Amino acid sequence: MLRSGVVMSLGCRFMAEASSAVPASAGVIASHAVRMPVGVLRTLERGRQTAARVGDAVWGEVVRAAEVARDAGPARRRRRVWSRSGRAHIEVRGLAGEGKRQERLAGGLESALAKLAGVRWVQVNTALGHVVVDAAKDGCDVDGLLDVVCAVEQAHDVAEQPFTHDQPGAAFDDVPEVLAKVALVSDCAGLVGTVVGWTASVGRLPRAVRVPLVVADTQPQVRRWLARRVGRAHADAFLATAGALVYSATGGMTPLVLDALQQWFKLGEARSRRTVWERREGELVADGAGLPRRATTPLPRPAAVPAGPVEKCAERTSLTALLGAAGVAAWTGSVEQAGQAILATVPKAAGAGREAFCAVLGRDLAQAGVVPMNPAALRLLDRVSAVVIDSSALCVPRVRLLSVAAGGEQDEAELWQAAQKVLSKRTLKDMAGPGPWAASGWRLRRRPDALDQRPDSLSGLHLEVQDVAGLLLGRVVVGCDLDPLADAVIAAARSGNRRLEMTQHASVAELLRWADHAVPASTALAERVRTLQQEGHVVALITCHDGEALAAADVGMALPLRAEFGRPAPAAPWSADLVCGPGLEHAWRVLSAVDDAHHVSAASARLSTGGSALGALIAAAGARHRMWGLTTSPVHGATFLAQIGGVRAAWRLARRPRPAGHVRGAWHAMEADDAFRVLRPLHHRAATVRMTSDVAAPTAFDRTRHRLAGAVTTAVTSLGLSAQAQHAGELLGAVREELRDPLTPVLALGAAASAAIGSSVDSLLVGGVMAGNAVISGAQRMRAEQALRTLLAKESITARRLRQVPDDPGQGFLGLLETVDFDPIDASDLQVGDVIVLRPSEVVPADARLLAGDQLEIDEAALSGEPTPVVKNPAATPGADLAERSCMIYQGCTVLAGTGLAVVVATGGQTEAGRAADLAGNATTASGIEGHLAALTQTALPVVGIGGAVVTALGLLRGLPLRQALVSGVAVAVAAVPEGLPLVATVAQSAAARRLSRHGILPRSARALEALGRVDVICFDKTGTLTEGRLTLTRLASTEEILPPDTEEAHRLLRTAARACPAPDAPLAHATDRAVLEAADKHDIQDPAWVRVAELPFEASRGYSASVGTDNGRPLLAVKGAPEIILQRCTTTLDPATGPPENPDGEAGSESRLVSLDEQRLAAAHRMMRQLADQGLRVLAVAQAALPVAEPANDDREQSAEQATSTAVATDTVADLAHDLTLLGFVAIADAPRPTAADAVKRLTDAGVRIVMITGDHPATAAAIARDLGIPHTQTIVTGTDIDSLTAGDRTTTIDQASLFARVSPEHKVRIVQALRQAGHVVAMVGDGVNDAAAIRLADIGIGLATHGSTAARAAADLVLTDPDLTRILDALHEGRALWASVRDAVAILVGGNAGEVAFTILGTALAGRAPLGTRQLLLVNLLTDMLPALAVALAHRTTATHATLTDRPAPALMGPDLARLLAIRGTATTLAATAAWQTGRLTGRARRADTMGLAALITAQLGQTLITDWRSPLVLATTALSTTALLTVVQTPGLSHFFGCAPLGPIAWTTVATSATTATLTAAIAPRLLTPTNPPTHAHSPA
User: Fold this and answer.
1) Per-residue pLDDT tens for 1522-1531?
2) Partner residues linked to 134 by β-bridges
3) Which of 42, 163, 1056, 1074 lies at 20 to 30 Å from 1110 by C-alpha?
4) Helix H segments across 123-209?
């Protein structure tokens, strides 16, 4: 009952709540029912409004497109107008140009428009033919402005003048964007129509309808005519729109897709151009003061723009296509087939690749802030061959002290500091004033002849330095600082062997040495540009203010003048093609794009040529085989690949990181504390930038890429395949580099051609050879790079970075010299502003300014070429040359002694060594044997093509069908392509590289070996390369004569010098001490009686070292040091007329020989000192003095003499004893030649190589070393000063005639290598130091020695000698020349054999009406006679018996008379053998048997000639036997013989074959002896 009550109660409650909820629910439902229609109506209304807006926008676009279309024609009627927020640019008729009429029109415009309400100012821009009006935001009524402009035009009778298409364009003009949209929409509509037509099976027009359009689009003459009629932009749009219609009607989807891609790129470029204009218009126009009121009419270009790869390809292919189509029409009588021939050979890929690159590049530049005033200039980048830089564009508005000339007894350093204090915190505007300027008791005032000078003037600002009393103390020159990217811009300009010219400018003097020509101030820049154009150059120009030069240049880049310069804004940007800046980053990126543009154009032209050739082949064959990677035709496939290549190149360029700026400063001229205060904030700023960049948000693409990379890395790691994956990635990268081989396109074309005619086997063979070549070469490259990385890793430089750096240095750094509070880090992690600790035997990790030092000595031989230690101290050295800046330390040098603290001023590529290497640029990349073989192939290919054409023509004349005749011709041509060439080159180079590696020579790339065979000049650095880079004692002399080292007097002199050195068991801090002690040990100088008591180590400020000791109980003082110091302390010397002492082991006997050092003897000593110094030797004087014996104390009479001396002479009193000395003589020290250097020089000279020695050392030292080494023709010594004083032409002649260069800098070494290469030599540069890196990089072959501190040299080298044995260079030379000989023989086998095959096929076709060899038989010939035998000859290592003949002269050019003679002999012998056997076989009447006999004789004759090439090689014998066995097997095996189109032969037939082949082989063996000239071998060039 209770349970039923509860249920009833719950039921009643539910019913009550439900009854109360029903009205509420009904209300909600009713509310929704009312609101739902309202929401739907609102959604519909929003949709209608959106559709209306879209419709209006579309209609607006249609109307705008119609307006633009109506404006097509030789003259424009539409006015260009742009307006935004109170600013309007309006095009005016008759305003562009110059003259009185133009001036009256400009004045009338400004006067009439200025009267309008709200107008603030009006200025004309005659460069563009515009008037610019600035008004209040609500006062810029464009319609009203246009009415006034029209009225003024009417008043000046110019209202009827049309606007021409040749008139300069404006960045805000929307016509390019509208036309790109029209073309893109047309292509999309065409695609839709094509798809609908396919789906609905609508009939299509014949493809011949496309021919007129294709001719108009690809024929340069037709396109130029059309552009003149309607304008270039309209012509492009017209052709694109017509193409969309025609291709849609003929079912051409692929060309529509390709053109749509192209229009998309153009649209992006046009939009970005308008966007950047709107962003930078206010900056460029400013207040209108910089707008040009008078425009100079540019003169016509003095010569036509040289054709680039694209133009040459278009001209060549289009003409060939028309001639081919005419031939097809004449032969077949079919216009349709002629039209198909034209369509199949369209050279569209060449222009498409460049256009895609330039469009994407233009878009990216605009997004970065470049205003493309003339986008057509980007299309000339691929032809730029000269760069002219107005040096003022490299300056920034920051004053800099350039030079100081002290007067009288005034200290130059003090004067520099005084001038620096006056200039501190002064701006360029301040220094442009009248002056004077004063600070801290010093005053700078203008010189009377420099009243109009400014720091940014060409000659700088010349000032006088005065004290408070007005006394003249000296003169200074003030200039501007350089932009941090100035070095990067110059490096980019010099890249690719382009000519660089710069205007003379005082502030840029340090960079002018890298220019090929310095344009004097008296020469107008525009005139120089036109001169270069007349010489055939396409000129790029960078300037800030020269509008006339910008108008004359082909690619003019303007940098707007910064307001801080305080000059009126120039009108130059309006004449430019590209408005860059501020700063040099944009200019650097444009110059960096020149190389990429050339590569893209060249690659696109190659693709176009290949696609056209394949298209012609397919059209002529009458069949079409679809291939992977191509769409509907080879031409379209090539176009797509060219577009992708261009876009990828532009994409990589846009993402190329900005180069690190070079932080400039006269650090050596500043006091240490001042330099630290300037540099330390740069460290904090760099750290902030690094932190900011670390947290920068990545893009969506970057995030996706990183996620995918992370997932792949995790998967590979989990499988334990990390090492394998890393090696595979390295190999793939190396293979990708190898596929850039010049022969790769040729082989790919051959493979595609084989596949196109149905010969899949040939296609697979050629493709396999290409892939195998890339894998083998890539593996060799990878191994070499891994070995080099291992070598470099062993000698990575570690830096000690100070952990706690005081904020205010003062004298605090002296107390930190012995600190251990530092972090050891890799040198690559250092930043400008870091403070580093220096310790003995360490390599300096960066360029740095010394803050404090304790007896610090640096070995700067790697930088200056002088092996002597350089004493360093923190004192400023203003005005000093690089090698004389004692307060600076440089990367790659070695600490010899002492300790120091220094603040980093430059790291990595910004150091002196790194900048020199980057600014020097690169030599033309060694193409290796492949490059020469590619040139040979390009020469042979026309001959092969002609052979195929002859076979085809002969077949047609004999009545064969066109397709069959064509297939025969193509088979011959494809089979005759020497596809084994790259594999032969790769294998031969790899084998030579492996052999060199076993000899301690590491090739960074096997391709570098090819230049070794042709080297005829080797430039050697002296210090550390020809010499050991350490001092050794070479001469001993008395005051009057050189002492033989085995005399008693020489032994005493050397013994005393050794006594003056530190104890032998103590660390030797000085190289001179080490040299003396090593010499004493070498000559077995024993000194058991000497007991050292005290010593005084060498210090630069003192100039000598000394020691006190006893000799058999007699106290003596031994001293050695600088002669000018020691001679002042000497009063006596030894009488040379007296014989040696009776007791040679002691020194007591010498007292009887003492004589006074009078004026006569002192003069003799000075003569001997100069005689030694003139030989380039470092001279030390040696002296001694007998010390008194102290009397022992009365209470200790038993004290020994040694103890007495020790007590009487304390260490700190040794210096006081160095007086009244006895001069014993001189020791001379020099950098010792390497033991193998003389032998290497002799053997290289005997091998026909000219030896050149280059050193930064003294000329006398250089001459002495050259004589010791036996370097010939060193009578004339050329110094760096001599090189600087010569003109470019005289410099090349002088350098070519000299073999010894002294006192040269790294820049001079670069000039020497450049001049030798310009003189036609193949140059190798051998070095070990940072000062050699630039020249090593520029040489044809750079050779680095793996010595201490030579990382920069090895990194720039092509070959690295892991063992500094210079005779290894001869091994490398031998391998290079042997490589050339092997490859020459292999080429003779491949090309000569193929020539014989082609000649035999042509001859057989002419005689029998058909080709005697088919495709499979030709393939068999290639397999048996080309691949294995040629590889065997290339791999066969030349024996030592032939060493002399291989190295008696540099290898001749591959494509020279020697090879031509071999090819002629081999081809003729092969042809005669095959023809004789084939003709004999024809007498039987059985064609297949005759063909087989010809085939067998052809193969056997080639194998016989291969055998006589190198019959001593087991590998050649084995491959010859293997090929012969294979031939017998193929011919005599029934089934296999039938497959290859052969027939088994009997004994008579084989006898005939053997007789023919043997006769041909013997003829080929005898012929070279009869045809070879008997001229003696040509040796290296001997200077006149």
Assistant:
1) 888 888 888 8
2) 87, 121
3) 1074
4) 142-155, 175-200
Phi, psi values for residue 1407, rounded to 5°: -85, -40
Q: Is 449 a catalytic residue?
A: no
Instruction: State mean pLDDT over 863-877.
Output: 77
Handedness of CA 1316, 1318, 1324, 1329 (dihedral sign): positive
Residue among 751, 747, 755, 750 at smallest CA distance from 621:
755
DSSP-based three-state secondary structure for 194: helix
Question: Rounded mean pLDDT of 1474-1502?
Answer: 86
What confidence tens digit (pLDDT) does each residue in 750-782 have?
667 666 666 666 667 667 767 776 777 677 667
CA distance 1340 to 1318: 12
Check residues 11 and 1017 and name the one with the higher pLDDT. 1017
Q: For residue 999, how many other CB atoms are within 10 A of its CB?
A: 17
Of 573-577, 1125-1129, 1163-1167, 1200-1204, minimum mean pLDDT range: 1200-1204
Which tokens is 1468 given? 């003729």
> Do residues 1474 and 1493 make contact, with C-beta atoms less than 8 angstroms apart?
no
Please give the backbone phi and psi of residue 1361, each rounded to the nearest 5 degrees, phi first: -90, 105
Helical axes 309-332 vs 348-368, angle rounded to 10°: 150
Residue 690's H or E segment, with its range, is helix 672-694
Contact 1024, 861 (CB under 8 A): yes
Residue of higher predicted confidence among 62 and 148:
148
Number of helices and strands (H, E) in the chain?
A: 53, 41
| Beta bridge partner(s), residue 480 | 399
Q: What is the pTM of this model?
A: 0.77
| Helices 981-998 and 743-756, axial angle in degrees (round to 10) | 140
340 and 624 in contact (C-beta within 8 Å)? no
Of the residues 487, 1021, 1328, 1385, only one is catalytic, namely 1021
Task: Check whether 949 has a pLDDT greater than 80.
Answer: no
Chain CA centroid to CA 1346, Å: 23
The yes-or-no verdict on residue 1144 having pLDDT over 60 is: no
Give the Cα separation of 934 and 937 in Å (integer).
5
Buried b (16+ CB within 10 A) or exposed e, 1136-1146: beeeebeeebe
Beta-strand (E) ranges in 8-110? 75-76, 81-84, 87-91
CA distance 580 to 597: 19
Cβ partners under 8 Å of residue 1525, min gap 6 = none
Give buried/exposed letters for 672-690 (b at 16+ CB in 10 A, else e): bbbbbebbbebbeebeeee
How far is C-alpha 1433 from the chain's CA centre? 35
Q: What percent of the chain has pLDDT over 90?
A: 14
d(CA 362, CA 269): 6
Q: What are phi and psi of 1344, to 5 degrees?
A: -110, 145
Q: In the numeric block, which tokens belong to residue 595?
A: 């190389």
* Cβ neighbours for 310, distance < 8 A, ≥ 6 positions apart: 350, 351, 354, 382, 601, 604, 605
- DSSP letter at 1020 equals E
Q: From CA 1564, how far away is CA 1556, in angstroms rounded?
A: 12
Better-scored residue on pLDDT, 679 or 1228: 1228
Residue written as tokens 């590696």? 997
Which pLDDT score is estimated for 1005?
66
- The CA–CA distances, whole Å, from 1432 to 36, 776, 781, 1426, 1436 equal 89, 16, 22, 10, 6
* Of 243, 292, 326, 239, the residue nearest 126 (C-alpha): 292
Give the residue, 745 or 1357, on which the prediction is more confident: 1357
Residue 352 pLDDT: 92
3-state helix, strand, coil in the chain (%, to 5): 55, 15, 30
What are phi and psi for residue 752, nearest 5 degrees? Answer: -65, -40
Find where tokens 């000219």 sit.
1250
> pLDDT averaged over the chain?
79
**pLDDT of the residue at 1441:** 35
**Residue that wins the pLDDT comparison between 1282 and 690:** 1282
